[in-house]
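Thread: "does anyone have the structure for this chain?"

Original post by V.I.:
We have the sequence but no experimental structure in hand. Need at least a predicted one for the grant figures.
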Amino acid sequence: MDQLSAHLDRSWDLVSKGETTQALVSARRALDLNGDAPEVHNLLGYIYAVDGDYDEALACYRRALELDEWYLDPMLNAAEILVNPEADPEEAIRLCRMALEVASTPEEMTDASLIEIEALMNLARVDEAALRLAEVGSAEALSPPYLVLVGRLHYEMGNMVEAKRFSEKALAADDTLPDAWYYAGLVARDEGRRIDAVVAFLATRERDLAMASPPWTASRPSLGESVTKALEALPSDALAMLDGSTILIEPYPSERQIRDEMDPRQVVLVEGVDPARRVFEKLWVFSRNVERAVPTAASLAADLAYFIEREVTTSRGEDAADGPEEPDRGAGRV
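Reply from O.Q.:
Generated one for you, tokens below.
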């Protein structure tokens, strides 16, 4: 194996383990060996994206495409960043349509199509998104994880029949997939099939807990420290509702909570009310759901603040002057 390939392989291995600092060292050594290798710039972009430096990641992906305009990986990697409503969904759509011209497998074509559909939805071009999703839905030979992704988009568009069909098809092919159980549970809940929803959510819990944590958790600060920073960043009215609350950090909602029809992937939960002080008694933070909902360690505290503020605001009801209300654990806030 030549030196360039060795550094590339080592860097990919390191970033897969969440060791982004050392991965960056190896990637830069590869860059020193061949600064015109597009795969090096794609790798650098991926490392920066894992660390939450999206501007630098996009610059690297664009450089990779300057060197090889039909290189599929940086097209899709850049599109995944640009799909955000606050980024550039139009550019994401352009990249996805380019990617469809060079994609050679059903999975590659589905990746490009799903990112494009998400971008269309973020631009409120719902009819276009629905047409594209119908095209993806007719594709054959999709693997179970892609069946789940298609079903998720159908669910988000309110197409319950198709969401149910794709979830069931995925589960028939592979019943170990937590996402397949989760969306089956959401559909069952929305259809009023409460027992089926709880069964599916308990299966989701079992399978989620068996999954490995994402790579970035290896280098993150302790979750307790991040929760403290998140609380400090809350608006004063939301923080007041948590004055004296007990902070409970658990890996996942308990079986009891899920049987009470709580969404198994809820990130945080406020529970119990002190009527005299008009504050919540407990704030639960579920670490495995934090890992799923937060893309990088860099945004951990800020994203936690968002989830906590949203939970407090939703759970206290519209009339904050009357103090917080007991949260509806069946509401399924994620």
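V.I.: this helps a lot. Residues 318-334 have pLDDT under 50 and may be disordered.
O.Q.: and The domain at 216-322 is CATH 3.30.2010.20 (Zincin-like).
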